[in-house]
Design a protein that fits this description.
Blueprint: H1 7-25, H2 32-39, H3 43-49, H4 53-77, H5 83-89, H6 102-106, H7 111-138, H8 147-156, H9 159-162, H10 169-183
Helix pairs in contact: 1-2, 2-3, 4-7, 7-8
Amino acid sequence: MRITKEPEERKQDIFDAALKLFGEKGYEKTTIADIAKAIGVAQGLCYRYFPSKEVLFDSAIDQYAEILTAQFADLAENSNIPLKEFIEKMPTTVEDKNTKYYAVFHGPQNKKFHNQLSLKTCEKLIPVVEKLLLKAKQNGEIQLEDLSTAAMFCVYGQLGILLEDGMEQREKANRIRAFLIYALHL
């Protein structure tokens, strides 16, 4: 008996199965046929929603980056503390190891994908950080003119430290916080 689902529900089923398999088998070893088999549908149905495995994976990167950005944006928008205090308290990561995304982007065979996720998250964070800097400027905490460049520097400038394998998370956070406070003259 064929089970009919709403298009968005079916698309999410395909997406969730793909993420699970990418995390278990790795991206390279997972095929669209594997994904279809995991949820009991024809391979062609997967292609109806995602024309290729690459498009499916790009959707995963975009969706996860959106989730990570939204968490930081909520913190930034609901904060009424000075920028310096926000930086001192801000999390350097908002990832939850128990999500369906974590294994895909943090598996030992998936470093390349983690780097892609980092870049996509940075891209989505720029407007959030620019808004945070604007608020600080309006409050007289900073005197920057080019908030767009400052936001890009604050966000993308952290990647070298965040992606460094030989450094503890706490040291990464301390270095980032200290530099941002210094660079923004807070």
